[in-house]
Write a structure and sequence with these properties.
Layout lengths: L8 E5 L6 H14 L8 E5 L5 H8 L4 E5 L16 H6 L4 E4 L2 H7 L3 H13 L3 E6 L3 H5 L3 H12 L5 H4 L3 E4 L13 H19 L1 H4 L3 E4 L5 H8 L6 E4 L6 H8 L7
Parallel strand pairs: 1-2, 1-8, 2-3, 3-4, 4-5, 5-6, 6-7
Helix pairs in contact: 1-2, 1-12, 5-7, 7-9, 9-11, 11-12
Amino acid sequence: MNSKGRKPIIAGNWKMNKTLEEAKKLAIEVKNNTLARAPEVEVVICPPFTALTEVASIIKGSHVKLGAQNCHWKDSGAFTGEISPIMLKDVGCEYVIVGHSERRQYFGETDEIVSMKAKAALAHGLSPIVCVGEHLEHREKGMTKDIIRGQVIGSLRGIEAEEILRAVVAYEPVWAIGTGKTATPEQAQEVHAFVRNLLIDLYGLEVALKVRIQYGGSVKPANIAALMSEVDIDGALVGGASLEAIQFAEIVSYEAKGK
């Protein structure tokens, strides 16, 4: 627990990368290289579906927690190519990413779909990492807060106060994902504070102050400490840098500067 009263959470989203052998190697390296930081920071890795079972066995009983990159909102059925939250729980997942901008952009996921997925995850004991974020054109037109307001309210619709405490919200400006561009700590904090205020409106002050809000978008060892020093930034959802164990471990081992 940090001075903000919330335990920082650093999650690695491996996306569509790593064969089974590569995933096993990376999981071992992440486990070994992040151990020293374990008491202070929650570490999560999200491999592709094909590697979940093997990675689960590697990190079982360790400080590293397992997450998946997506799930369906139904428990089972005729949904070819999909994965249910029951299946994820069965292989050892504790977290699942829902509503990532790439799912929204390439697979047409709406706030309503994200909400259904988040509720399904919660119903089966998984903690959803609910992603929101604006495109560059939205930011340039001064629409950032309008977009974020709609996504937060829509994606969390139907989630009760006791459930939101098991969820994580991830703010990922789409223009910063995989581009090398990063929101400045001040830009990120402005949106994180806005999200926090939306959570206050939805769930009340006491609950909202306990919800963790991650930042995602070209997070690197060089910028993590400055981001984490902001009062409403509680962690990072790391993409490319999570594919290199040393880089990811350096991010996990950030030294937060005073807030």
